[in-house]
Amino acid sequence: MLRMPVLLVEINGVNIEDTFAECFTSAYTRLLITAVNEKWARIAATQATGYGTSMIGCTAEAGIEAFLDESQTPDKRPGYVIQLWTSKKNMLNELLGRIGQCVLTSPTAAVFNWCESTEKLDAGHKMRFFGDGHQSRGMVGDRVVTKIPIMGGEFVIEKEFGVSKGVAGGNFIILADSIESALAAAESAVDAIGSVEGVITPFPGGVCASGSKVGSNKYKFMHACTNELYCPTISETVEGSFVKDAKSVLEIVIDGVSEEQVKEATKKGIEAACKIDGVKGITAGNYGGTLGNVHIRLRELF
Questions:
Q1: Domains and CATH numbers, the chain
Q2: Total Cβ atoms within 10 A of residue 301
Q3: Which end of the chain has fewer CB atoms at under 10 Å, N or C?
Q4: 186 with 53: CB under 8 angstroms?
Q5: Would you say 175 and 280 are in contact if contact means Cβ atoms under 8 Å apart?
């Protein structure tokens, strides 16, 4: 942590620190998963985005972006837009694995490309082999799809999926006087961020309780470790602790299709969090430029 805390401004009496969230560019794709009703669309989307909180340990960061009703989808069924974030090199395997294991197996599910990009991956074309020769080509509106016979009926998957570049690792940190107030603020922030198109909050319920730092002070084999400067239970024993006056600290991490949308989500999330009683401060995670070259400065948001 190579920065000195400086008071910037107050929102509803909450101190906003003059610092920046250190983000990085990454490849992403967006998928639309539809099903016979909202329940089964949500189940498929939830399964497909599992084990997707952080690229530190997961093969991808993943999350549900938005719900679309029947009037907004190619097959006139309800669906959920999801995002997957990983390296461009790994994206095709990620698509094949998550679609093949989590969407193909979900009753009545279908999946369409929802990422506008000139660069395409032929995940749907490769999935045809599951049909063992019984698959067929078809159209849903103007979209080329593969139709695979399955025991539950027919699985429809678009032939190609776009891949593009966005901004991952947007974040802000909530300092509060109790876990109850910290959690209420985090939940309020996640709800507000949900109104911004093109972003996800990949951690459980959108909230990260175990914010980390790059590398380790003690163990060379660790790529990331607990961020002790933000751990309230050891604030009295850790030199330079940033949270001596806080009892609970939670982090919101944001991935978005553009820097502008991550900025908008950060602003809306912070404003919502600052409305909750017991919130004492807002800051952001940065690592002296060692993580990424996209810096979202809190002062520019307000």
A1: 7-19+166-301 (3.30.70.520), 27-162 (3.30.70.520)
A2: 16
A3: C
A4: no
A5: yes
Bridge partners of 165, per DSSP, are 27
Amino acid at 76: K
Q: Is 0.85 topped by the overall pTM? A: yes
Other C-beta atoms closer than 10 Å to the C-beta of 244 total 10
3-state secondary structure of 272: helix
Q: Containing H/E element for 249?
A: strand 248-256
Write out pLDDT tens, residues 13-35: 999 999 999 999 999 999 999 99
35-79 residue pLDDT tens: 999 999 999 999 999 999 999 999 999 999 999 999 999 999 999
Locate all alpha helices (DSSP H) within the chain, ordered by sequence. Answer: 38-48, 88-98, 123-127, 179-193, 259-273, 298-301
CA proximity to 55, closest of 31, 32, 26:
26
Nearest-5° angle of CA 249, CA 274, CA 240?
35
Using a pLDDT cut of 90, give the percent of the chain over it. Answer: 90
